Each structure stands twice: as structure tokens, then as C-alpha cells.
Amino acid sequence: MSNPCDDRPESHLEFLRGGVIRAKKRGGVESLRGAQSIEVFGLRRTDLVEQRGERERLVRTAIERALKAEEIAVGELRAERRKEQEQLATDLLNDARKLLEAQQPYLAVARAVFKEYGLK
Question: Could you tell me the pTM of the whole model?
Fold first, then answer.
């Protein structure tokens, strides 16, 4: 078995809220690779669940801030202020995307949250 971080773990694992992880199901059948990865690497250990949960909250908060800034920009009537708010929203989302860089911990969790929001 290979290290789950060497490929895209989200192909075999599902990352749920609060750092919970489970093997992905396709057609009602649990991914054997996912189930084995959870067992072999101890991916349900309390410390890992807590760390994944904290990472999920960090990513979610970063995205929510960017989306809120965009919402404010849309409602802004003054063109100059709207432009500033749009730039802030762009900057915040770009900062959030840094959590998707390859060296970041719990990268698959970040990818899952971005996917949930329909973002890349």
C-alpha cells in the first residue's frame, strides 16, 4: 500500500465536517483502498481528527471571509468603494487558495472544502 498523500486521497477517502474521515463509497461499495488507508495509517486517531477539523475550520473561515467581502462589494453603490471591496474579496480568496499548495498539511481536507463551495 502506498502513502495516501502520494496520490489524491479524496479518490478513496471522504472528508466530513469536524475532521471525520471515511472510505468513499461508489455504487454502495466502500473503497477498499480507502478503508485500508484508514486502518493502516490510523487516520481516525483522535489527534488527527482534531487536526483535520482545525484545518477544515481554517479553510472554511478563509473562504467565508472572501465570499462575505464579495457580497459586500455587490451591494456597494459607490463605484470606487465597490472596486476596493472586490479587490479585497479577490485578495482574500487568493490567500485562501494558498491553503491548496502542495506543501500544506491536510491538503485533501482543504481540497474537499473548496469543492464543497464549488471553488478551485
Answer: 0.85
